[in-house]
Predict the structure.
Amino acid sequence: MTPPPTAAPALPAPAAVDARPARDPAGRRTHPATGGALVLAGMLLVALNLRAVVTSLGALLDEVRDGLGLSGAMAGLVTTLPTIAFAGLGALTPWLVRRVAPARVLVVAMLALVAGQVLRAATDSAWIFVLTSALALAGIAVSNILLPMLVKQHFPQRTGLVTGAYTMALTLGTTVAAASAVPIAHAFGSWRAGLGVWAAMAAVAVLPWVPLALRTRAGARRATPTGAAVPTRVRPARTRLGWAMAVYFGAQSLSGYAIMGWLAQLFRDAGYQPESAGLLLAGVTALGVPIALLMPTVAGRLTSLRPLVLGLTTASTLAYLGLAIAPDGPALLWVTLLAIGQGAFPMILTAIGLRARTAEGTVALSAFAQSTGYVIAALGPLSVGILYEITGGWTAPIGFLLAALAVQTAAGMAIARPRYVEDE
């Protein structure tokens, strides 16, 4: 891929985003006023759904435990399922898209998300709840991997801009689900409503992909398989760049999951009321919405990502030191710095597209970085919880997060300069 121009234009109307004719997954040209706009709308709707199933459950976990009689071990399994699903099932996505058009894969993924959310909200069985949650997360795991590939395929000259748009939609969906799950449950008198309502949003996300899936199917019937070129397999696990991307993704996700899981408890231990501690945690996500929009655009304009890597590390370091030394001090400052530091997430999603030349390379790099990274991320909340329980304070847990940040920074410096996974 040719690096994006130094001065990216402002986001135009959706119908004009993909001004040049693009090729759909069947190899045919798509009309910019239909294919490009429909793909963009579909991507944004999918992104809105990529964390709602997780954050809505987190907000209602106590009610779900009481309603289904979940043991502590079962509740721990449910809260660990996202990283397990994202790591295991995400790794299968490149295999899927080599055999099935991405639009058709996304239709199935979103239907799995709809079915999983509906069934888990309706069941009275703890084990069925776990299994149907896994079904919903399977749809998310596949979609996580596909979105960077679709950006590369349909918007190769607008990688930062479109990545910023869908990352902002992802963050917005995360925030809305976390903030409204409890009020919805209270309004309907049941936690089932607070979980099940998000199935409707997932069902809407299916709609743009149905005509795209039908179009690629028709194109596949007209194609001549004997004349088609076989794409070269890209194996990021055999490259230094692939491992650097995976470590960076994993380390930033580790800190993100640890913050989401434990920041409210840290503020409560510092003397804040539960409601205030919850609002401070929500502030990290809310402040992340504009950062998610701007970060990919900034990353796409830079020749080297080094200034961003170092800037994000500085913000996170100051936040961690502030929380360790004066957690009862300027809490809004620590929350703001944490939100800036968590801009590493949209940055690494952008880097996945910037560090691959082809759609095949992008989906392979996305799958490897995210599946391996989520294995690393699973250590975050667990390690912080163990250190907190052993020491009874926050010095050791924050020290662990600072050590993870050092690893993240080293990996970030390795991916900062322009290069491509296919070349390695």
Summary: The radius of gyration is 21 Å.
